[in-house]
Design goal:
Blueprint: H1 2-12, E1 17-20, E2 23-26, H2 28-52, E3 58-64, H3 66-83, E4 87-93, H4 96-104, E5 110-115, E6 124-129, E7 131-135, E8 147-151, H5 157-169, E9 173-178, H6 182-190, E10 196-199, E11 208-209, E12 222-228, H7 235-251, E13 257-258
Parallel strand pairs: 3-4, 3-5, 8-9
Antiparallel strand pairs: 1-2, 2-13, 5-12, 6-12, 7-10, 7-11
Helix pairs in contact: 2-3, 3-7
Pfam families: HTH_1 (PF00126), LysR_substrate (PF03466)
Protein name: LysR substrate-binding domain-containing protein
Keywords: DNA-binding, Transcription, Transcription regulation
Length: 260
């Protein structure tokens, strides 16, 4: 690996890594090259899929939580649609309990849903969410007052996590705003109405973590799991499932590179 890095740096006539012992960190030039390299690999994968994979057709029914779909899946699904234009994607966003219920009734080929971390069994784990308490800097919360909460209606997983954690910690709370829409929740929080729960990587620039300043209890992680309908599913559904898993695995990038 060291030799390959050296050849790459010689090829572009730029230093791409800052070295600190055996640990490497990308330089600004390295970050630019990494962005282009990912785009090249993505285009190469699309081209190979179009040439090598037989033309796929049919309908794939996918269920997913709204926040996960908007943050992580939009680009994946758009790429899949471009590569396989004869596959019709039918995507529905809903709460986990509703997704599981409809999945059991045969209404989906694939579902992504949130659950408690359960180890390797049961579906394919594709993502792990680290949760945090967030609010607008405009929020005014007095010490000793019940925590004002902005949450989705039951049976939302984040709502359950928030209320359970506060109850265990003995903190008073009150729900000031409820909406089934992610956009509605974020608008209420941005206006300073209250505190909500979001994955750390989904916290917008105009919101801040308030777990420390409000001394809120730590929230346990959730995980996103992919279920595939039992029995035979179409080749298009199988390929979409593999595409989602591979795409999300590539997004988990280690912060440092260790050279053997």
């Amino acid at each position: 690996m060291s030799l390959q890095i050296k050849r790459l740096e010689e090829g572009v006539s730029r230093r791409l890594f800052d070295r600190d012992g055996r640990e490497l960190q990308l330089t600004p030039e390295g970050e630019v090259l990494l962005t282009y390299a990912r785009q090249i690999l993505k285009l190469g994968g699309e081209a190979l899929s179009r040439i090598v994979t037989p033309e796929l057709m049919g309908l794939v029914r996918l269920g997913t939580p709204e926040d996960f779909a908007t943050t992580h899946l939009s680009e994946v699904l758009a790429c899949f649609a471009r590569t396989h234009p004869h596959v019709a994607l039918q995507v529905n966003c809903d709460f986990t309990v509703n997704l599981l219920d409809d999945f059991s009734k045969g209404k989906y080929d694939l579902i992504l849903f949130k659950r408690e971390p359960q180890g390797p069994s049961g579906g394919t784990r594709v993502w792990r969410e680290v949760l945090d308490w967030v609010a607008s800097p405009r929020l005014v919360a007095e010490a000793g007052d019940p925590i004002p909460l902005v949450l989705s209606p039951a049976p939302d997983v984040y709502r359950k996590r928030a209320l359970s954690a506060l109850d265990v910690a003995g903190r008073d709370w009150r729900i000031v705003y409820t909406s089934p829409s992610l956009a509605g929740l974020q608008a209420a929080v941005q206006a300073g109405l209250g505190v909500t729960v979001l994955p750390t990587e989904m916290i917008p620039a105009d919101m801040v973590s308030v777990s420390g300043c409000l001394q809120l209890p730590k929230l346990p992680d959730t995980e996103i799991v992919l279920y595939q309908a039992p029995g035979h599913v179409s080749p298009a559904a199988e390929l979409l499932a593999a595409t989602i898993v591979a795409a999300l695995e590539r997004r988990v990038v280690a912060p440092a590179v260790f050279v053997p």
